[in-house]
Design a protein that fits this description.
It is a single chain. By secondary structure, this protein is an alpha/beta fold. The chain has two domains: about 55 residues, no CATH class; about 240 residues, Rossmann fold (3-Layer(aba) Sandwich). It has eleven helices and ten strands. Helix 1 packs across helix 6 and helix 3 packs across helix 4. The longest helix has about 40 residues.
Length: about 325
């Protein structure tokens, strides 16, 4: 019995469909999935680093108390409280040093120890990843700064706290978080923001891919950020927070070798656009890179710059600040 033969045109169509399916499976899908997966896994790695806990203040010759700060959403953050000089006016002020990225409660001790030796009270606490929470690259850290403010307001340990003299000192992602926290918490009198970013989407080129594959990678990164944080990366926008900061002070610190320095210059220009008399400045230690400000400028110069700002922001003692920055952009 003869089997009916398909017309040649139908056979050709089947072969073409088969070739299209093979082409899609072996060529098109990899072109999509590989860059998407690369972007997704890169963001996953960025959001899940190991905790870099750091040391303890006694390694810097500073007395301290271990504290526990109730965390938003449950749990707590381990921290340090270091008392300043009770005989000095600076001992009335408290500077909160938020953790940067995966930093633990001791990750910023080099700079914090200089501030406490200058006379200020210092509060530090561990980063989100060290407490088993999701890293956010700065946005959720603003809530954590709010938790530190609540802790100082409740003052369960009976520390010397004047809530009218609170400032922030943030580095990298904590610098960005400190800028955004200034906009959210009006009780913060001033902040130092070191080496942060002005807008993470813009910094990463989100929305302006160099080519199609780069665009697919960006979709992977955005998907991972939204999946693991529950937020959109568009919230990482210190630049957008600047209009809510003046007349309070924001001191930007970026090394001359930092790739994010142009973003800092834009932030300075924006602050002066919001308020031509804005209490702000951009200090650029020459030859400094990300996080090497003390090492490059020297401890004495770093301390001089910081005390000039904090004395003005917290006590209206502005002679040193004006002498340093009067007439400078």
């Amino acid at each position: 019995m003869n089997t009916p033969q398909d017309p040649p045109s139908m056979t050709l169509r089947r072969r073409l469909r088969r070739l299209i399916v093979i082409f899609v499976i072996f060529f098109v899908l990899p072109l999509i999935l590989i860059p998407f997966g690369f972007g997704f896994t890169s963001m996953f790695g960025l959001l899940h680093p190991p905790c870099a806990d750091g040391g303890t203040p006694d390694a810097y010759g500073v007395d301290f108390r271990e504290i526990s700060i109730p965390a938003p959403g449950g749990g707590s953050y381990r921290g340090f409280y270091m008392a300043g000089d009770p005989a000095s006016y600076r001992g009335e002020a408290t500077i909160i040093v938020p953790p940067a990225y995966a930093g633990g409660r001791g990750a910023m001790l080099e700079e914090a120890s200089l501030l406490v030796k200058a006379g200020y009270n210092i509060l530090m606490y561990e980063g989100r990843i060290c407490a088993g929470k999701t890293l956010s690259l700065g946005y959720r850290d603003v809530e954590d700064i709010g938790a530190a403010l609540d802790y100082l307001r409740a003052n369960p340990e009976g520390f010397r706290v004047d809530m009218s003299r609170i400032a922030l000192h943030g580095y990298s992602s904590a610098g960005a978080a400190s800028t955004m926290a200034m906009a959210r918490y009006p009780e913060v009198r001033g902040a130092v923001a070191e080496g942060g970013y002005h807008n993470l989407n813009e910094l990463m080129g989100i929305g302006t891919p160099a080519n199609v594959l780069h665009g697919i990678m960006q979709v992977g990164s955005l998907s991972a950020y939204r999946l693991f944080t529950g937020d959109d990366p568009a919230v990482l926008d210190p630049f957008g927070a600047l209009e809510h900061i003046p007349p309070r002070g924001l001191f930007l610190v970026y090394g001359s070798k930092e790739s994010t320095l142009p973003g800092a210059e834009r932030q300075l220009a924006r602050l002066l656009e919001v308020d031509p008399e804005a209490f702000t400045a951009l200090w650029v230690p020459q030859d400094a890179d990300h996080g090497t400000y003390v090492r490059t400028a020297g401890a004495a110069e770093f301390t001089r710059q910081m005390t000039g700002f904090y004395d003005c922001a917290l006590f209206d003692r502005c002679d040193a600040w004006r002498q340093e920055w009067a007439g400078k952009p």
